[in-house]
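haha ok so turns out i had the wrong file open the whole time. this is the CORRECT one, sorry everyone. sequence first:
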Amino acid sequence: MPSSQHCIVVKKWTELLTTYLCSSTLPEPLVISLTNGDGTPGFGQQVVFRVTENNGVVSGSGEARALVLTTDVFGKASVRWTLGTRAGSGNNKVEATAVGYNGTAIFSASATLRPPDKINVASGNNQSGEVGIPLAQPLVAIVTDEGHNAIPDVPVTFQVAAGGGSFDGAPSVTINTDNDGRVAASLTLGQDGGFDNNVVEASFPGLTGLPATFVASGFVPGDPGDTKVSGVVLDNSNNPIPGVTMRLAGTTREAVVDAEGQFMIENVSVGPITLIADGGTATVPGTYPTLMFEIDAISGQNNTLGMPTYLLPLNTENTATVGGNEDVVYTLDEVPGFSLTVKAGSVTFPNGSRQGQISVTQVHADKVPMTPPNGLQPQFVITIQPPGVLFEPPAPITLPNVDGLQPGEVTDLYSFDHDLKQFVVIGTGTVSGESSGFRLSENSLNRNTDFRALRLSHMLCRAK
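then structure:
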């Protein structure tokens, strides 16, 4: 047994600074050597090998994120290492320590992308447009490997499967994915009108799963004076919300939602319009947000969003005043594991105020008013109000691990950007060692937003 008089050192026996495929088991074991102060091997000592980054595992007497092994007569102990699912440079790490021995042996390895495994719709699905005319938004697909890493330079073929549409006059087009694994193509609708009558499938060579399928509706234009926008406004429980004012941005055209939750705005201009749902005028109990939606209005048609407009009552009973001289930790009693830490003096509200109230409300996963990106089906979604609040420095956030992801697993977090009118990645979250929750990485926030501030928009959801 080593004593305090010894010069005790933990030495790396094998050093790994190389690159392997995600989820692969390294060909050589990790080996450490314990040496006592008198130069003799540290025989019979317990060594803890622990995965400290990514969701890999070590194996020896078992398989886990942390193992305890006993050194042999040469003072050595070893484990095999299987890397995590997230690709990156030096993003897999294992540390080895021994009680009574100074120092820590750190093993590092980079993980590269595995072959492309699946393709999903990123955006552009369920559009409507005038027959024979290109859709307002491109069809965008994303290609990932089995660890959900985006794969660049994959040739993706968009193939018209129904409706007679085309890509620059051809029934198909092949385009390589960009550095984010995304690929976009512009579809010109066929000449026949119909609901979801235009179908396009996107795939890549070697795909064994389902293609990404896009549908679009074609409409024959009519009298511009008959152009309308209509829909239904519901809450999280599918109840109508009468009194909500639906108006077109930049115009005087508006309508009030009736007792059945329905509305219709007539004499609408043709082309791109912004529909605003003003929840502040609702005549039922509760406080409702204001949302905006983009529509490409077709001449002479009754234009809709293709789905109900969902407005959820905001959690106004659990508000917190932030921006003062003390840090504020915001939690939700109904959501164990959630916390938002707002640093003192870190807040700027949309009106320029440096102090005010925020609230957080959980959104039903099937009632997200904006279509989630990349084919995601998020199980945990929240809205942070008011939208557009700026946190400098960033506000650390912890979310419950509702999908049961592995400890150490890294996942993307998305927020709806009202300026870009789409979900964007605001950073990554790492599942805690207990796998009960995960925390948003501040470094990832800074890197992905290109400034040391997090602007929390209307929605925040986690990607599995």
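The mean pLDDT is 86.
again sry for the mixup
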